[in-house]
Amino acid sequence: MAYATTLDGTNVQKILADDRQTNFVSCSPDGKSILTDAGGKEIDQTDVLSLVTTPIFSALPTLYGDPSWSPEGNRIAFNWITNNSSEIYIGNKDGTNITRLTNSPGSDRFPNWSADGTKIVFASERNNSPGIFTINVNGTNETRLTSNTFLDTFPAWSIDGTKIAFTRYTSSSADIYLMNSDGTNLTRVTGPNNGINWGADWSPDGTKIAFTSSRDGNPEVYVMNPDGSGQTRITNNPSTDEAACWLRPINTRPNTGKGLRVQYFHN
User: Fold this and answer.
1) Is 255 a domain residue?
2) What's 166's domain CATH number?
């Protein structure tokens, strides 16, 4: 089930008409719709006002998910599992022109677009060395940015293109990290001793990051400044609240940050 709330945690609204299973969500740049992966069965687009859901990628023979809107809102990046290998693809928002970007023996997941729409950042578990990678949208110049014994995942590019936020798992914790878009200047912005923290998503104006944390004993959505200060809990209920993304009100001028809402789902 997917919901939206204002930044003070009030005015909670359901934005999926049914209770379909949803593993991952992406908010459109214009604030009018969300993408969901229907539990890996298909990728759907839902209008947040009418709550009408339309399948986009539903005829593919195997599992796919982790959808991500391009900055201009015309293309979608996603992962597609074929022959026991999860790879990154992009396609038009009408489901046409599907193009494969990655080709590795490991699992490539969680694509996210650069602000100019020329690159994709993604997580990969290839070669027993999980890390964050970037690749051009034409499939060239694949570059490793991080390497972790355990897992680096859920990358998210900042609106100005200079930073990438991601989740780093270790044997005992998970925290949100920031780095420059070339992989330098790695900085932890959550923790220590604040539970498990994951799933960063930048606000459209670049001033806030939404993420999920279990620090209070139950996964809830939080918002913080990019430097890790001002960490504030947004949701508060006994269900698992996670996979937050930002919805800009339709009548809000782009990049003002006014009236922003956080979308999330809970189960």
Assistant:
1) no
2) 2.120.10.30
Counting the structural domains of the chain, the total is 1
pTM of the complete model:
0.88
Q: Does residue 143 lie in a domain region? A: yes
- How far is the CA of 79 from the CAs of 111, 124, 139, 206, 259, in angstroms? 7, 11, 14, 26, 32
The answer to whether position 241 is within a domain reads yes
pLDDT in tens, 44-58: 898 887 888 888 987
Token pair listed for 179: 């780095």
- What is the token pair recorded at 148? 């972790």
The pLDDT of 222-229, averaged and rounded, is: 95
**Inside any domain, residue 199:** yes
Residue with the two structure tokens 């990969």: 124
Q: DSSP class of residue 142?
A: -
Tens of pLDDT, residues 107-159 = 999 999 999 999 999 999 988 889 999 999 999 999 999 988 889 999 999 99
Query: Any idea which residue has 């027993």 for tokens?
Result: 128
User: 28, 69 in Cβ contact below 8 A?
Assistant: yes
Q: Which two tokens stand for residue 236?
A: 């508060």
DSSP annotation of 206 reads S
Phi-psi domain of 264 (left: phi exceeds 0; alpha: psi -120 through 50; beta: other)? beta
By residue range, what is the domain housing residue 127? 2-250+260-266
pLDDT digits (tens, 9 = 90+) for 187-205: 999 987 788 999 999 998 8
Express the helix, strand and coil content of the chain in percent, nearest 5 each: 0, 45, 50
